[in-house]
Amino acid sequence: MARPLDGLVLAPVADQAPGQVGTRTRFTYHEEDGTVWADYDGGDIVRGHLLGTREGDRLDFRYVQLKRDGTTSSGHCVSLVVELPDGRVRLEETWTWESREGTGTSVVEELRATGPVEQVTERVS
């Protein structure tokens, strides 16, 4: 079984359709005793939540989100938790909208730890 998700921040590796979850979206996961939940935002998503269960390397959850245009959406997702060779976690997802038409697949990966914050200097002419 891949390592626990608690405290991990993951992001999509590619953009989905316009107005949906994309590479600027960040998911902060939590896990306890087989229960998994996450909060997410970024890009076109103002706020999203997911809640479900984990059995081994399989996640099964429902999600709901609010977009910047004020619309809400909800759906169901099943994900496979994979540990990458560099030790990071990847979720390979298959999802179905329940509030509208559509199905698809996506991949989110744990963000790498960043180094020191780069200092930005403003140049005044």
Task: Indicate the topology.
Blueprint: E1 9-12, E2 26-32, E3 35-42, E4 45-55, E5 58-67, E6 72-83, E7 89-97, E8 103-110
Antiparallel strand pairs: 1-2, 1-8, 2-3, 3-4, 4-5, 5-6, 6-7, 7-8
Descriptive tags:
eight-stranded antiparallel barrel, Lipocalin, 125 residues, globular, 0% helix, disordered C terminus, mainly beta
Strand composition percent: over 45%
Radius of gyration: 16 Å
Largest sheet: 8 strands, antiparallel, barrel
What is the count of helical runs?
0
* Shape, principal axes of CA atoms: globular
Question: What structural class do you assign from the helix and strand content?
Answer: mainly beta
Major sheet strand order: 1-2-3-4-5-6-7-8
CATH class (first level) name: Mainly Beta
SSE pattern: EEEEEEEE
Q: Could you please describe the fold and organization of this structure?
A:
The structure is a single chain. By secondary structure, the chain is mainly beta. It has a single domain, classed as Lipocalin. The protein is 0% helix and 55% strand. It has an eight-stranded antiparallel beta barrel with strand order 1-2-3-4-5-6-7-8. Strand 7 and strand 8 form a beta hairpin.
Brief characterization of the structure:
The protein has 125 residues and is mainly beta. The chain is built from no helices and eight strands.
